[in-house]
């Protein structure tokens, strides 16, 4: 099987930003979306045990928990707070049965221009977290963010770099998150997806809209509204052995302003269209 | 010599966007800046022969001409127009004695999501241009633009890709432009600068300002106003055998609004500061 049918669709909660967890879960059930990607703030609102029960009773699979990371902190107190927060995130991912805990690793250390320092801090912090994650059976997913976020959000700025980092650790403990928005531009993408074989723990999709809006964090669109050619990327993700769900995660002010049911319908139909395109391409 | 002293400074005309060619040349002379990077629209305003005479009489070196490229056009008529425009750009670069003609290669073909197609069109178009450029002794510089411009301005989105492309052609005909704003984030930068040995035809510097402004085209700052660590990049550019000028090229609404003499003073002093930092680092 090379493509992803609707039985692999997951709705990342950030796509319906204004819904609490219970409403987001109900939306998925109403629209026959079998999985959900959760965010920690929304989980915390209803408390962890209730959140886990809610999702389980609804029969939804938790494809990911967003997010841990932000490791690049200068002082020891700050690093200790980050460590504690990531431990909590691993515990939450375990309780929720999430396929992966997504790590957004952090930008440059405040006041520093040293990319190497920041990258070493990320590697060290992940290394520190791995034994605990292994004990709880949680898989960490290193997400490469688009290079435009390198300074302030994530110094891991290409998939190749995320793969290099993941390969330092056991495959059952650390993998990579592939998000089309962040990596579509990369001439080495096909190669790096091959190198990621057995290591992809989450596949997230949304489109790159042209022109980029004023707030580049919100420049994401529904599948088909932008320039990304999803077929070849999905093929390569599947060929790398990825067996999980495909999360639609859209940060976009217009999408957030839309009625959630309308958003769910669009997510589902656009995903189905892409699946057909993909099947067509792969014949 | 590993660093770049003030005798290697060049002012790219775009930094003082509101000045015509004569005023920009006079500004360089007034501030003891030995070279200038020219833009074709400002050259055209005074006509090519006058522009060449003006710069020559002022004793300025022309470190680059911006720019050719934008090769990714679907229809034959459009491609013919692009070809003619690039031929004209090569002629202008020759007449001005520019060290390089900067190529911004173009984004996705309008209406297409095929990155491979766009990249093949770029390679083909450069291949078509090379014999003419060689005849006129003009060196073409492929500029990798930041991945955030991949869709609409330049599908060559990393230095490695620019190097790969340049290596398809004779070294005296085709090289790469290294612009810190576009490539600073790349974990493979040191490696790709090594691979670019003997192929760097222009080195442009400006800083990456955080947060990115609403118009990402204008998110550049004076050296020191952002997060880029220029020392290691300049060292690697020098180690790759680059013997040319260092162009300060800043697209920034505030810089454009400043008095040009003030801008020139800032450019010069920030450049001198970085040179000192560099010398310190290289000891």
Quick description:
Chain A is built from eleven helices and ten strands. The first copy, chain A, is an alpha/beta fold.
Main sheet characteristics of chain A? 8 strands, parallel, barrel
Physical arrangement of strands within the biggest beta sheet of chain A: 1-2-3-4-5-6-7-10
The helical percent of chain A reads 40-55%
The radius of gyration over CA of chain A amounts to 18 Å
Tell me, rounded to a whole number, the average pLDDT of chain A: 95
**SSE sequence of chain A, one letter per element:** EHEHHEHEHEHEHHEEEHEHH
How far apart are the termini of chain A? 11 Å
Total number of beta strands of chain A: 10
Describe the structure.
The structure is a homodimer of 283-residue chains. By secondary structure, chain A is of the alpha/beta class. Chain A is built from eleven helices and ten strands. In chain A, helix 5 links the parallel strand 4 and strand 5. At the A-B interface, helix 6 of A face helix 6 of B.
Sequence-ordered SSE layout with sheet pairings:
The structure is a homodimer of 283-residue chains.
Chain A: E1 9-12, H1 21-30, E2 35-39, H2 40-46, H3 48-57, E3 61-69, H4 76-96, E4 101-104, H5 115-135, E5 140-143, H6 159-166, E6 174-179, H7 180-183, H8 189-195, E7 200-205, E8 207-208, E9 220-221, H9 230-239, E10 246-248, H10 253-257, H11 260-282
Parallel strand pairs in A: 1-2, 1-10, 2-3, 3-4, 4-5, 5-6, 6-7, 7-10
Antiparallel strand pairs in A: 8-9
Helix pairs in contact in A: 2-3, 4-5, 8-9, 9-11
